[in-house]
Amino acid sequence: MPSSDHWLQLQRNVRFGETDAAGVVHFYQLFRWCHEAWEESLARYGIAAAAIFPGCRDICQVPTVALPVVHCEADFQRPVHGGDDLRILLEPQRLNPGCFEVKYRFQLEDMDVARGLIRHLAIESESRRRCALPEPIDLWLEASTVGRLEPI
After folding, report:
1. Closest C-alpha among 2, 10, 1 to residue 104
2. Whole-angstrom Cα distance, residue 129 to residue 135?
3. What is the residue extent of each domain of the chain?
4. Strands 111-121 and 123-124: what pairing?
5. Which residues catalyse the reaction?
6. pTM to 2 decimals?
7. For residue 78, which of 113, 107, 106 has the smallest C-alpha distance?
8. Of these residues, 20, 58, 75, 112, which one is catalytic?
9. Strands in 49-151 per DSSP E
10. Considering the domain 4-144 in this protein, what is its CATH number?
């Protein structure tokens, strides 16, 4: 298993097209970045996109569990501009056997500039009923807690 620094700490360069007329990042980009960081984290950990996300090329079997977003929030602490090199820190947390969330911290030169949170719920793809998280996500969540103290 790779070091969690490899799959829970990512980098992103802010592109001009992600900014608005004032030259700062448009608010909705933060949610896109959060989701993309989650996807990249899964890939770096070793989970193929096709195992989690429907519609992937060369998919052998459609995932039987969907992970829709049921809650999201974002806060900007400082303006983020085109050209900024951001560090993204992911903090995944299992909330119960069928639900997890990922907290995201966006840093510029070790200073927090934004935060995001996305919560996912596991549902059966066919019936849309709640279910347990798929095993690859369970393993990813478990691995993310290695070396981290959890509250009692």
Report:
1. 10
2. 17
3. 4-144
4. unpaired
5. 20
6. 0.90
7. 113
8. 20
9. 65-66, 69-76, 85-96, 99-108, 111-121, 123-124
10. 3.10.129.10
